[in-house]
Amino acid sequence: MVKPDSLKAWLLAARPKTLSASATPVVAASALAFHDGGFRWIPALLCLVFALLAQVVSNFANDYFDYRKGADDAERLGPKRAVAEGWILPSAMLRATLVLLAIDLIIGLLLLPYGGWPLVFVGLAVAVFALAYSGGPYPLAYHGWGDVCVLIFFGIVPVGFTYFLQTGHWTFSALICGLACGLAIINILVANNFRDRTLDEKANKRTSIVIFGERFGSLFYLFNGIAASACCLVFIAGKAWLAAFLPMIYLVFHIATWMEMKRIWQGKALIAVLEKTARNVLIFGLTLAAGLIL
């Protein structure tokens, strides 16, 4: 039982089980900076806090806008949403979203001494993405752009800038690291959209799985995990053998979860696939980070 406007309601709205999506790229980028001799703990910590809060903002906004658009109704198969369940008033959720966004942007300002004023534009881009993902006149998630957005804003951008803010430069390895993280993290979205494909279509939420079909969704999920692991092989060139091969541990969990997705195929039982996918992302991030550090 969840009491309206309780701490439990707000914690559930933050979706803590999926926060590995924002932590993983920062941890991986910081490990790469350590490997390259440029690790700095203050910008690393600020980037982590900024990333975690940005994802909570995005989750709150998604909760609010999906309710307004009718995507979260009584037929919803996934974890319960705070606004749709009446735990949090829509006006309170919108207000919390904007307040947390403002706080996150202030935290971002603390990174200016490490990266300069151009970071302001990065912060604004993150803010726009957090709101435009499911809100605004052209909600990205409703027009098939969700996967691309995750690759960019949960992979390439956080890894690239976390690395840059610690080392002061960019490298090809940082780009590939960002791609690897982004590909693994996309599967959290794919697992969610695969489960909700029928209801998303009814709500006119045209995810990639609604557009291309459920078989595509299953194969897309499998491909992303394999491609993420394959990206790590680039570290062989720098003789970081552990960084290249330790993430293969993740591949074992990834394929097992994919097989479970295929077996279940539809219904509420797919919630377990989403949770295991988030766990797999954490395994990927930790094994990659361990390989780079060791």
Mean of pLDDT: 92
Structural class: mainly alpha
| Morphology | globular
Q: Report the C-alpha radius of gyration, rounded.
A: 19 Å
CATH class descriptor = Mainly Alpha
Beta-strand content estimate: under 5%
**Share of residues in helices:** over 70%
Number of helices: 14
**H-E string:** HHHHHHHHHHHHHH
- What count of domains describes the coordinates? 1
**Low-confidence segments, ≥5 residues, pLDDT <50?**
none
Query: How many β-strands, per DSSP?
Result: 0
Main pleated sheet: none
CATH architecture: Orthogonal Bundle
CATH topology: Farnesyl Diphosphate Synthase
Terminus-to-terminus distance:
45 Å
Please outline what is shown here.
With 294 residues, the chain is mostly helical. The chain has helices at 7-14, 20-35, 41-69, 90-109, 112-115, 119-132, 146-167, 172-195, 197-202, 208-212, 214-231, 241-245, 248-264, 271-293.
Structural topology:
Blueprint: H1 7-14, H2 20-35, H3 41-69, H4 90-109, H5 112-115, H6 119-132, H7 146-167, H8 172-195, H9 197-202, H10 208-212, H11 214-231, H12 241-245, H13 248-264, H14 271-293
Helix pairs in contact: 2-3, 2-7, 2-8, 2-14, 3-4, 3-6, 3-7, 4-6, 7-8, 8-11, 8-14, 11-13, 13-14
